[in-house]
Amino acid sequence: MQIQVVKSKIHRVRVTGADLNYIGSITIDEDLMEAANIIQGEKVQIVNNNNGERLETYCIPGPRNSGEITLNGAAARKVAVGDILILITYGIMDIEEAKDFNPALVFPDEATNLLK
């Protein structure tokens, strides 16, 4: 049997932009994506600590060391600039593999979204 487990998490990043007229996705500083082992196009769950919204979309890399966290397309209606988010990705694996798996957990500076 296979189960779905947390693969990576970027904990408490601040929304820097919301672009309703973009085709969709979330733009994430590429340094944060690498630290969390998230790849371009990967599905991500977004948890908004400010309003309780939960949604899913896919990732696109933003400029390195920019701290960018921009919700694009319809997802832009679910956030406001300054909201605090938790970004989570999941992996599917065998139960035995999952017991020994360690997710990539990233805790960036909440004021700048940059790696500490």
TrEMBL record:
Q: What is this protein called?
A: Aspartate 1-decarboxylase
What's the name of its gene? panD
How this chain assembles, per its entry, is: Heterooctamer of four alpha and four beta subunits.
Q: How is it modified after translation?
A: Is synthesized initially as an inactive proenzyme, which is activated by self-cleavage at a specific serine bond to produce a beta-subunit with a hydroxyl group at its C-terminus and an alpha-subunit with a pyruvoyl group at its N-terminus.
Which InterPro entries does this chain map to?
Asp_de-COase-like_dom_sf, Asp_decarbox
In this UniProt entry, the residues modified to Pyruvic acid (Ser) are: 25
Pathway connected to this protein: Cofactor biosynthesis; (R)-pantothenate biosynthesis; beta-alanine from L-aspartate: step 1/1
| Chief localisation class | cytoplasm
Compartment(s) of residence: Cytoplasm
Alphabetized HAMAP family for the sequence = PanD
Which Enzyme Commission number(s) are on file for it? Answer: 4.1.1.11
Which residues participate in substrate binding? 57, 73-75
Q: Name one GO molecular function term.
A: aspartate 1-decarboxylase activity
* Keyword Cell inner membrane among record annotations: no
